[in-house]
Amino acid sequence: MRPHEHPLVRWAAQAVPTAGLRWDTDGATVVTATGLNRRDRIVVTGSASGAQPLVEAALAALPHHVVLGESSLVAQLRGLEVVAEFGWMDLLPTDPAPEVSSVGVRWLDDDAVAPVLAAANPGSWVQVGEPSVLGWAGAPVHAEQDHEIASVGALAHCAPDVAFLAGVTTLPTHRGGGLSTAVCAFLRDHGRRTRGTVALMVDAHNEPAIAVYTRLGFTYRAVTAARMAS
Q1: What span, in angstroms and rounded, lies between the C-alpha atoms of 214 and 16?
Q2: Which of 7, 57, 117, 162 has the fewest Cβ atoms nearer than 10 Å?
Q3: What does residue 22 show for φ and ψ, rounded to 5 degrees?
Q4: Model confidence at 147, in pLDDT bands (50, 70, 90)?
Q5: What domains lie within the chain, and their CATH numbers?
Q6: pTM, two decimal places
Q7: How far, in Å, CA of 102 to CA of 87, rounded?
């Protein structure tokens, strides 16, 4: 994988050796990622003219996969209909990472994470026990204490050079106090040390979450998921 490539492609390409395909031209790259982060995707970057035939070839092989790419690119591709629009946020090794305290945040075992997910986000895209999880971290209600975990998050579905944040959630009774920011800062810093680039996906309308990630140095990129037009 070429380090200069779009982090979205570098992240998706982890699926190629076992459950994916890859097409390249001078102006575009398409990677298929079956089952990655609970979805079957065809990830595309580059120019529309270069991407069009590659996407068509990928959909011919995998017609039920969803095409995913930056919104400005997907909007130019023919033969697709939009499924969803959301955000891909990333922090590159050369990007500044504002210092944010993560005092009190620590790595957790599954038993400590499970009740927080069950109470705050039972439908989390990452669940306890998933083999893709590198580690769960969490913050207690009070930094000086080591119990009563109120916010958790994970590094999961990570590529060799792209750490991926997921499963970030805080108990409703403790939201707004900066706990998720501390957890994300802890995971961000570990991801940068071990993988270089850190990334995540976020709902386009989740303004509080986007604000948190922006304060941590992440850049928002609008992305669109689309399927083959019927």
Answers
A1: 30
A2: 57
A3: -140, 135
A4: confident
A5: 7-86+223-228 (no CATH), 106-195 (3.40.630.30)
A6: 0.93
A7: 25
